[in-house]
Amino acid sequence: MAAEPVAWRADGVPYSERFDDIYHTETGALAQSRHVFLGGCGLPEAWAGRPQWRILETGFGLGLNFLTTWQAWRADANRPRLLHFVSVEAHPVGPEDLLRAAGAYPELALLAKELAAQWQGLLPGFHRLAFDQGRVLLTLCIGDVQAMLRAQRFEADSIFLDGFSPQQNPAMWSPDTLKAVSRFARQGTGLATWTYARAVRDALSQNGFQLERREGLPPKRDCLAGVFAPAWTVRRRGPAAEHIEAPGRCAVIGAGLAGAAVAASLARRGWQVTVLDAADRPAAGASGLPVGVMAPHVSPDDALLSRLTRAGIRATWIELERLLAQGRDWRASGVLERRPEGDTRVPAEWSDSGPNESWPASTAQLAETGLPADTPALWHARAGWVRPSRLIEAWLREPGVEFRGNAAVARVSHSAAVWQLFGDDGRLLAEADRIVVAAGFESGRFAPQLPLQPVRGQVAWGRMTGELALPATPLNGDGHLIAHVPEGEDALLWLAGATFDRDSTELAPNDADAAANRERLKRLHPAAAGLAASFDRGEANAWVGVRCASGDRRPLVGPLDEDGLWACTALGSRGLSFAALCAELLAAQWHGEPLPLPVNLAKALGTQRTRA
Ligand SMILES: Cc1cc2nc3c(=O)[nH]c(=O)nc-3n(C[C@H](O)[C@H](O)[C@H](O)COP(=O)(O)OP(=O)(O)OC[C@H]3O[C@@H](n4cnc5c(N)ncnc54)[C@H](O)[C@@H]3O)c2cc1C
């Protein structure tokens, strides 16, 4: 699973030994990409004034088509608000090869750097990368072309076919693959490819494309352009009920991680979003947690939850880098997870060199954290601590989002395609085209059909004093410890927890939980045991919040029974891992966009799964 090696020939041409073929010709790869793919699909003119443009590509290769398209989008005053680029690739190259390929073109150099910076962790599956404030979204589908196409669903505006040559990589051009590709086309979808091979033309025509030979750019003689215009009526499943063409007004109930993330994702797509909260300030519920850990779930069989948390952390990570200050609001410190004796297994195909980003912890990592060398533990490189309220505030500051405090919603009602939200006193609080319920454990009030359970939790926290050598990296396991979190000018905080108390919504701290946190700390880390004294001296504070959990511990995102009423909740104990991903999933469903997750994982988060 190491990165696909690229053999750079003496003449500068990148060559693949696996396919015995070149990635592109010696000169003018950028011009080729513009001529064949953009030109073949009538871009950038075709996307002018459109709210979104969605491109499907087979064969990401060295990424030049993506970079060229992104560059054309940036340069175009009439660009769509959102550009989606979905690319299927079975053998991703390493970041240094992306940089080298783009290095020949100064106009792509900066973009390639940004791409390379997010080019990590590319295990088989989908990976959503985001650029330009989340307005350019690249979904890499890593795996066999047909399986990846089956797992994705959207209507493409342009299709780029850019695999290695049909002789060298026939699977990429087989009739079955081209049929699967054509399922993404709508009337008028453009298609472009560099090959003029007869078998490819035949298969595309049979699937409804009207084709045209175009002059190639030397050294190529010709290339192919087409439009999906079948002579027969295509039976597609109609747009899903939730599909909405034009962004309007949305009211979000709850200004925690879930609500703020939804607001930001919708505002990016042009929605006017009002976020209402019962409290006078954002992050007054579970998301008021002073600082939290973000680390992936890992299992030997790479279970659903493991894949979901990885996708979620990638989505949050992009937002943390985009919006917050490292070291102050969050830290990409890595996390050490203590495991039960004999259980540091990871999927068999993972290796120490990646692309996976979790491994059994090394002796050096254990020593650095101050733990004995024989401690069973995993090291998560893409993990760290986050102050949730900082992320929420940043999301609520996005253009198009308005926060309204002291606005407890008691009731919602729907008439004449408008939703109205009322307070306790019957006062009309807001009107909207759609509502998203993100009220944490109180979501059940608006969505009684969802299987939600409150789970109270208490953490202990305090100021660090010089005496204790607390680890710089957060520790996770049976409970967690985060230290060295800056607070104000010169203070550093530690935080440890947490307790789990099902079906309780009691917000007052209690001594039994304080004692439980104290005992857990002692087991977690030898130096942390010294913190127990802070409890005795009354220097440990308590913070209490109530999580909202579903029956199967996965979030619930999707429509409720009434038209235009949606939920994004049940983030459980992983709000930091899930909020951004769930929000993007909801927005993608509203606009019929490419999914950030394979269909089966998206379904595993859906509200519909609870109606067996
Ligand atoms: C002790 C503890 C430790 C945790 N540790 C971590 C951790 O380390 N890492 C991690 O990722 N996650 C952690 N979590 C989980 C995380 O805090 C939650 O998953 C996340 O905060 C949930 O966000 P939310 O927006 O769904 O809910 P909330 O943050 O609870 O937001 C719901 C909001 O809705 C508002 N509201 C409710 N009813 C109404 C109404 N009728 N009208 C208007 N507004 C309303 C509330 O005021 C609240 O602001 C922890 C949770 C707890 C309790």
Highlighted features:
612 residues; alpha/beta; FAD/NAD(P)-binding domain; D-Amino Acid Oxidase, Chain A, domain 2; 8-stranded mixed beta sheet; 6-stranded mixed beta sheet; 26% helix; 27% strand; globular; binds flavin-adenine dinucleotide
Main pleated sheet: 8 strands, mixed
Radius of gyration: 26 Å
The portion of residues assigned to helices is 25-40%
Number of strands: 32
Count of all domains: 3
Q: Could you give the distance between the termini? A: 38 Å
Task: Give an overview in words.
With 612 residues, the chain is α/β, with parallel strands linked by helices. It has 3 domains: 7-228, Rossmann fold; 249-285 and 402-450 and 556-610, FAD/NAD(P)-binding domain, CATH 3.50.50.60; 452-550, 2-Layer Sandwich (D-Amino Acid Oxidase, Chain A, domain 2). The protein is built from 16 helices and 32 strands. The strands form 7 sheets. Strands 6-7-5-4-8-9-11-10 form an 8-stranded mixed sheet, sandwiched between helices. A 6-stranded mixed sheet has the order 20-13-12-24-32-31, with helices on one face. Strands 25, 27, 28, 29 and 30 form a 5-stranded antiparallel sheet that branches. α9 (304-323) packs across α15 (575-591). The protein starts with 6 loop residues before the first strand and ends in a 9-residue tail after the last helix.
